[in-house]
Target: Elongation factor Ts
Amino acid sequence: MAFTAKDVKELREKTGCGMMDCKKALTEADGDMEKAVELLREKGLAAAAKKSSRVAADGLVYAYVDEAAKVGALVEVNSETDFVAKNADFKDFVDTCAKTVIKEAPADVAALLACKAAGSEDTVEALLRDKILTIGENLIVRRFARFEGEVVTYIHGGGTHGVMVLFDTDVAGKEGFAAYGKDVAMQIAAANPTYVSKDEVPSDEIEKEKEILRAQALNEGKPEAIVDKMVNGRINKYYKEVCLLEQPFVKDQDLTVAKYTAQVAKELGGNISIVKFARFEKGEGIEKREDDLASEVAKMVK
Model:
């Protein structure tokens, strides 16, 4: 499979590796992007295990919780500019989307668009079309999450990041739980875990990670006899990166999130378990069109 200069550039952005290393990896991987990333990691060249998503769109991440119904919604609606994201009319539309998610429990975005909007006689899609016309920018309802039960939400940076966490607990009404819930949500916003616990990590993902770590250790010149021991040690480090409960707690690095949770549960005289979470980062993974200002000015002069 052939590859282009654009593929080399993309691999470089994903891994932080040099241009020639990326070119060699793509050649060795026969143009397969994922395989090339693995090869660079095995050689110890890739900057990070996690591929960082390119944040390249504006808009708003927003959360709303219906305390009476015990239902929460986290939504992301994208706009072309940050200016529009601060527009009151746009914010009202995002709020309507969240309230509609709570009320109608749609299966996906397509179903949400077809729903009658909360507090309106129109569908969400009709309201969206109206906002596009009045605001003058392309707007997209991108994604949402909806949890039922003891929900805590956290919005960072005025809507750049949003987190919603579902807890199974008998101490939700006690003083101290709300602060604990916010701590956990902020941890997720900052540390970006993929799973709640080690049990959730797919076995094939662990085996793949072990293969990469093993090849990495051998390429570092480590003796075969200690490679497996090293791999097990590095797998534990991997768990700390991807599993919320294994992560060092941001406010006290001596505690893991699991130990912090157990500590708070004991103090409040009950049980707390983290069921699941959703974390949205505004524009995550969307590649924004980059304007060449010099070219635009040159065209205008001509």
DSSP finds twelve helices and eight strands in the chain. The chain has a mean pLDDT of 87. The radius of gyration is 23 Å.
